[in-house]
Specification:
Blueprint lengths: L15 H8 L4 E5 L5 E2 L14 E5 L3 E10 L13 E8 L2 E8 L1 E2 L19 E10 L2 E8 L7
Parallel strand pairs: 7-9
Antiparallel strand pairs: 1-2, 1-3, 4-5, 4-8, 5-6, 8-9
The structure holds zinc ion (ZN).
Length: 151
């Protein structure tokens, strides 16, 4: 049995719009049609007003590292050769309670172990990049945002 990466279901009715957007290099979150709150990860109804009406709302793709861990011995065999590598949780600039997990890459398309985990800090600014991992799956990943004035 081939062992590849674990891939998300891109045809799930709640998240299909998100995956369609990442395939176009866009980062979107759900915007509630009832109360206007932004929500992520995608879900069938709003936790504030219970409306199931929503639209896809583009966001900047900027955020900060809310937390991170270092995978030294990944549970999933396909990732073992990359260890150790950092796994980050990013809070989005538009609403810090919107969080997404991913990896920090040294450059677009780089490996998930391309950034030394010792260089990561809570609160570090990051911005999104997109990494195609299967024909219909493009994952949002993260690049460190240089401080203002840095070359
Ligand atoms: Zn709502």
């Amino acid at each position: 049995m081939p062992v590849g990466p674990i891939l998300p279901a891109t045809d799930d009715p709640d998240s299909a719009g998100f995956w369609a957007a990442t395939r176009e290099g866009k980062f979107v979150v759900q915007k509630c049609g009832g109360c206007g709150e932004l929500r992520f990860p995608p879900r069938p109804f709003c936790k504030y007003c219970q409306s199931n009406d929503f639209s896809w709302h583009p966001v900047s793709g900027r955020g900060r590292i809310w937390s991170f861990a270092i995978a030294h011995k990944p549970v999933y065999p396909a990732l073992a050769d990359f260890a150790p590598f950092p796994i980050v949780i990013v809070e989005l600039e538009e609403k810090p309670t919107l969080r997404i997990s991913g990896n920090v890459l040294a450059a677009p398309g780089a490996a998930i172990n391309s950034v030394d985990p010792a260089k990561l800090r809570i609160g570090q600014p990051v911005h999104v990049t997109f990494q195609q991992v299967a024909e219909d799956v493009v994952l949002p990943q993260w690049l460190l945002t240089p401080p203002p004035g840095a070359a």
